[in-house]
Structures are given as structure tokens and as C-alpha cells.
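Q: Convert this sequence to C-alpha cells.
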Amino acid sequence: MDGVVNLRQIRKRKARQDAAKTAAKNRAKSGQSRAAREADARLRALEEGRLNGHLREDLRAGEGES
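A:
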């Protein structure tokens, strides 16, 4: 055994790490120009359309059904 573990400190450390990850994502997103953000959105939509285009017809027709 390593000894006494303070769970409060571990929880706070994890919260700080999660906050740092979120902040890094927000900095990257905010650092982009409007044109770059729109280009990324168009690229994501194109990729999603290509992926959905490869679905079989029987699966595409039954998307809303369980």
C-alpha cells in the first residue's frame, strides 16, 4: 500500500485537468477565423454525408424505427 490517499485532492486535480482540456478546446475554437470555422463545418457536413451515403437502403429506411 502507498499510504493515505486524500480523495478530495484527487477529485480537485481531476476537475482542474478536465477544465484545462475544455479551455484548450475553447482556445483552439476561438482562435479560428469565421471563414475557417465555416470551412470546418462544411467539411464535417460533407464527411457525414459521405458516411451516410454508404448506409444500406434497408438501414436508412428504418432509422426512425426501433
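The radius of gyration is 21 Å.
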